[in-house]
Design a protein that fits this description.
Layout lengths: L3 H13 L3 E3 L2 E5 L5 H7 L6 E5 H6 L14 E4 L7 H8 L15 E2 L4 H14 L5 E3 L7 E3 L1 H8 L5 E7 L8 E7 L6 E8 L7 E6 L2 H5 L7 H15 L1 E7 L2 H4 L2 H12 L4 H8 L9 H9 L4 E5 L3 H9 L3 E6 L10 H10 L5
Parallel strand pairs: 1-7, 11-12, 11-13, 13-14
Antiparallel strand pairs: 1-2, 2-6, 3-4, 3-6, 4-5, 8-9, 9-10, 10-12
Helix pairs in contact: 1-5, 1-6, 10-11
Bound molecules: guanosine-5'-triphosphate and zinc ion (ZN).
Length: about 350
C-alpha cells in the first residue's frame, strides 16, 4: 500500500535539511544542507551527488549525453575535493558564471534509476534545487517509496472543498470552487462564470504566476492573459477559469526566480530551466482534467496557444472541441519571452 502521507513528511524533511530514504537509498538535499549536516549524513565521506541529466549536460559531464529526458538522474562521484561549497556549485547554476567549475567529474552507474528519479521529482515538488547527496550512513528522518510520491501527486485524490459566489471585475455572475487533496498544500480553484447553456464551456487553464498575476510583471504575459480570459469567458456566456497552483510551470516560485536570474545573465526561459535541472515544462494537466470532471464537464473549448495543454487534457479524458487562440499584444520586456514560446515550446503565436 502506498502512503501519500510519507511523501508529505518527506517534503517537509527535505525543506528542513533532514535526510530521507527512498526505496532504501538515503538522500540529503544539497540546497538545505550545510557542512555540519553533510558531515552528520555522510560519516564515511563516500556519498555521491545526484543531479539531473539537464544539469549534467550544462556541466558538460561525461556519460549523460544519451539521456534524452532532462529530468533523468545522473550520479556524480564524490571525489575528495568535492566539499560542501563545491557540491553547492554543482547544484546551483546561479553560481556557474561566478564559480568556474573545477572538475573533472566522474559519473557513476546508477543500478536503479527509479528512486533517484523519484528524488529529483520530490525536490521539484518541495520547490528545491534538484540535487542530493546520495548514499550517506545517517538514519533517515522519513523512509518512503517512489510509489508514495505517485500517490501524493495522484490527481484522483482532489476533491471539492467548498464553493461560494464571487463577483469579480469583468464577471459579476461568478462562483468560486476550491479543490484540495488530503496531503498536498496546493489549493487549486475554479471560477465558474455565467450559466451553463448546454454547449461545452469556454475554459482557460491558468498556471499561477505570482509575479505576473499579482505584481504586474512585464516579463511574461500571465497577468493580461488572466484578465482577458475572464472577459472572454464572460462574453461567451458561460465558462470556467481554472487557477492552477503550478507556479513557474511547476517548479515553484523560488526556482522560477532562479530561472529569472539566469535570464538576467542572457539565457532564455527554456535554457534557464534546463540549467537548473528541470524539465522545460513540469506541469501535470491531469489536475485540470480532474477539476473539470468534478465540475461535471467532459468537453471544453480551450483558450490557449499551447498545444501541450490540449494534448494533456485529452490524454486525461477531456475532449477539446475547439482550441481558441489567446494572444495578447507584446511589450518590450516580454517580446523575447513570447518569441521563445513560439520558437522553442511549440506555442502557436
Ligand atoms: N520556469 C519558468 N516559468 C515561467 C517563466 N515565465 C513564466 N512562467 C510560468 O509559466 C506559466 C504560464 O505558462 P506559459 O507557458 O507562459 O503559457 P501557457 O499557459 O503554457 O500557454 P498559453 O495557454 O498559450 O498561455 C506560469 O506558471 C508562469 O509562472 C519562466 O521564465 N520560467
Ligand atoms: Zn507569468
Amino acid at each position: 500500500m502506498s502512503d501519500a502521507r510519507a511523501a508529505a513528511r518527506a517534503i517537509d524533511a527535505l525543506r528542513r535539511g533532514w535526510p530521507i530514504a527512498i526505496d532504501g537509498i538515503t538522500l540529503l538535499a544539497v540546497e538545505t544542507a550545510d557542512p555540519g549536516r553533510l558531515a552528520a549524513f555522510d560519516t564515511e565521506g563516500a556519498a555521491g551527488i545526484l543531479i539531473s541529466s539537464g544539469r549534467a549536460a550544462t556541466l558538460k559531464l561525461a556519460n549523460q549525453v544519451e539521456a534524452a529526458d532532462p529530468d533523468s538522474p545522473v550520479l556524480v562521484e564524490r571525489a575528495p575535493w568535492i566539499d560542501f561549497p563545491a557540491a553547492t556549485a554543482l547544484a546551483d547554476p546561479q553560481l556557474d558564471l561566478a564559480t568556474p567549475l573545477k572538475g573533472p567529474y566522474r559519473t557513476l552507474h546508477l543500478p536503479d534509476a527509479r528512486p533517484a528519479s523519484a528524488a529529483l521529482r520530490l525536490a521539484r515538488i518541495a520547490g528545491l534545487l534538484p540535487a542530493f547527496f546520495l548514499g550517506g550512513t545517517a538514519a533517515p528522518e522519513v523512509a518512503l517509496t517512489a510509489a508514495d510520491i505517485d500517490a501524493h501527486e495522484d490527481a484522483d485524490r482532489l476533491a471539492i472543498a467548498t464553493r461560494a459566489r464571487l463577483p469579480v471585475a469583468g464577471a459579476e455572475d461568478a462562483e468560486i470552487v476550491a479543490f484540495r487533496s488530503p496531503e498536498s498544500a496546493d489549493e487549486h480553484v475554479a471560477l465558474l462564470i455565467g450559466q451553463p447553456n448546454g454547449a461545452p464551456p469556454l475554459v482557460r487553464l491558468h498556471s499561477e504566476c505570482l509575479t505576473g498575476d499579482v505584481l504586474g510583471s512585464l516579463k511574461c504575459d500571465c497577468g493580461p492573459q488572466l484578465h482577458a480570459a475572464i472577459h472572454a469567458i464572460a462574453d461567451s456566456g458561460w465558462g470556467i477559469l481554472l487557477y492552477l497552483r503550478q507556479e513557474g510551470r511547476g517548479i515553484g516560485l523560488v526556482n522560477k526566480l532562479r530561472a529569472y536570474r539566469l535570464q538576467d545573465q542572457g539565457f532564455d526561459t527554456v535554457d534557464a530551466n534546463t540549467r537548473l535541472g528541470f524539465a522545460i515544462d513540469a506541469r501535470d494537466f491531469g489536475v485540470a482534467a480532474r477539476m473539470l470532471a468534478l465540475l461535471g464537464q467532459d468537453a471544453v473549448r480551450l483558450l490557449t496557444n499551447n498545444p501541450a495543454k490540449v494534448a494533456g487534457l485529452e490524454a486525461a479524458g477531456i475532449a477539446v472541441a475547439e482550441r481558441v487562440p489567446h494572444k495578447l499584444p507584446p511589450n518590450p520586456h516580454n517580446a523575447q519571452y513570447l518569441a521563445t514560446k513560439r520558437d522553442r515550446t511549440g506555442h502557436q503565436l
